[in-house]
Each structure stands twice: as C-alpha cells, then as structure tokens.
Amino acid sequence: MLKIENLKAGVEGKEILKGLNLQVKPGQVHAIMGPNGSGKSTLAYVLAGRDGYEVSGGSVTFDGHDVTEMSPEERAAAGIFLAMQYPVEIPGVANSYFLRQALNAIKKARGEPEVSAAAFMKLLREKAAVVGVREDLLKRDVNFGFSGGEKKRNEILQLAVLEPKLAILDETDSGLDIDALRTVAEGVNRLRSPERSFIVITHYQRLLDYIVPDVVHIQAHGQIQRSGGKELAGELEEKGYDAMIGAVAA
Ligand code: ADP
Ligand code: MG
Ligand code: MG
Question: Which SUPFAM superfamilies match (predicted)?
Fold first, then answer.
C-alpha cells in the first residue's frame, strides 16, 4: 500500500530524511518511535505534502501512485490523512460545517456526489457517538476552547468521518496526558480495519500498551534504524535510544 524507498527530504534546504525506507501493508498499524529531532514529524509532513517540504531523492508510492507528484488535496482524496500534532482552532467556523467541507472536498476530488447537510448531520451524529464526541462539540467552533482531550477526540472524529486508507498520527511532543493517550488509542482501535493502515508516531511507550502495533520502527538521524514487533518498544523502554541506535553515526 505505502512504499517508501530511500527517501531523502527536507525543509528550507536542510536535508532531514536521509534515505528512509518503510513499507506499510493494508490493515497494519506501524509505530514510529525515536529521539527528538530524528525527523519523525518531517516524515509525516512529507507524506501529507505540506508546503515547504521538498523531496530530493528516493520514492514514495501509495497504491502504486507516486505520492510526491500529488497535491495535498489529491493525497487526501487518495486516502492519506494526517492528524495535526497541534490541532488548529478556527473561530467562526462550526465544527460540523468544517468536517462536511473536508469530506465533500475529498468526494469532489474523487468525482463522487457531495453529501447534503442533512445527510451529513446524520452521519456525523453516528460517528460522534462511536468515538465519544459530545453533540455540543459539533456545533462549537472548530477546536475553539476545546480541552486537550476534546481536541484529541475531535481529531479521532475527523478520522472516523473522512475514513482514510492511511492515517498518520503524530503524537510527539504534544504532552498528552494518560486520558488523551487512551482517547487516541481507543479511537485507533475502533477504526482499525483490514483496509485501513495507521502510522502512529509517538514518544510514549505507554501508548503502545493500548494500541498494539504490528510493527515498531525506531527512527534516528533521518532513517529507520531498527524495525521489529511490539516487543521492540519494550526493549527500547528498557535500554533507551542510545543503546538501541548507538552504533549509528550521526
Ligand atoms: P522529530 O519529529 O523526530 O522530533 P522533526 O521532524 O520535528 O523531528 O525535526 C527534525 C529536524 O529538522 C530537527 O533537527 C529540526 O530542528 C529540523 N527542522 C524541523 N523543521 C524545520 C524547519 N522548518 N526549518 C529548519 N529545520 C527544521
Ligand atoms: Mg520533535
Ligand atoms: Mg515531531
């Protein structure tokens, strides 16, 4: 599904990803761990096609298509979803309206009919119930005045509504408390399916107690240095990054 080969990419002329390889199959949950500054968020942004991130080598294909040639909108339409590490607040725009626009933008790009306001509200209420978002948060402005936990739930709601094939969650540095970690984990577990894959970027070994990943990667110095099963996260907790990636020069 997702195939990243020898990816070199960076921002503002600085190379951050230095030959990164990663393959994700349908239905798999991959966790990427790694020390601060190893380029984990950069990888997420490069996959989503964020402005300013330049690919200088290697390839990224998704369902056989060259992702690097696609606009962010085309990537979303293809089913790639990036949850924001720091969710944006959008005063003046109702959450339900924002979500419907996001869904309809994807539908339009796919050449599918748009969803009417009434049909969307029905869908949204169903999804909100599934992921545990209170109804009043649907009417409020996007993330505006939401607590940290409510923002996390809202992010999971976006995921539930947009139904991506590949969801990338970057939880690094975001200071999640244990309840928010649980929210993310429950959301991911509920939305896991044989067709949907996840890349969960995290500092927190604890998150992986709740989301049991199929594959764990350790990223350092812009490369995936180690890959293994879920036990790799435990080993990492025990030994620390230095011991696990110590042999690799910066
Ligand atoms: P991680 O998510 O693993 O902590 P990042 O992808 O955020 O790592 O950052 C990787 C490296 O790239 C860091 O050294 C960081 O300082 C640098 N970096 C990130 N964003 C920028 C930017 N906009 N301009 C220059 N350097 C950046
Ligand atoms: Mg960081
Ligand atoms: Mg980061």
Answer: P-loop containing nucleoside triphosphate hydrolases
Question: Mutate which of 33, 41, 42 to test ligand 1's pocket (most atoms within 8 Å of Cβ)?
Answer: 42
Ligand 1, atom 27, lies closest to the CA of 11
Low-confidence ranges of the chain (pLDDT < 50): 249-250
Tell me the pTM. Answer: 0.92
CA angle 221, 207, 214 (to 5 degrees): 75
**Separation in Å, CA 16 to CA 83, 99, 192, 247:** 21, 32, 30, 19
Exposure of 142 in the CB half-sphere (CA atoms within 13 A): 19
Is the shortest distance between the CB of 40 and ligand 1 below 6 Å?
yes
Of 165, 170, 152, residue with least CA distance to 39: 170
The answer as to CATH 3.40.50.300 being correct for domain 2-249 is yes
- CA-based nearest residue to 22, from 57, 59, 56: 59
Give residue 245's pLDDT: 81
Cα 25 versus chain centre, distance: 15
Q: Angle, to 10 degrees, between the axis of helix 148-162 and the axis of helix 117-131?
A: 120
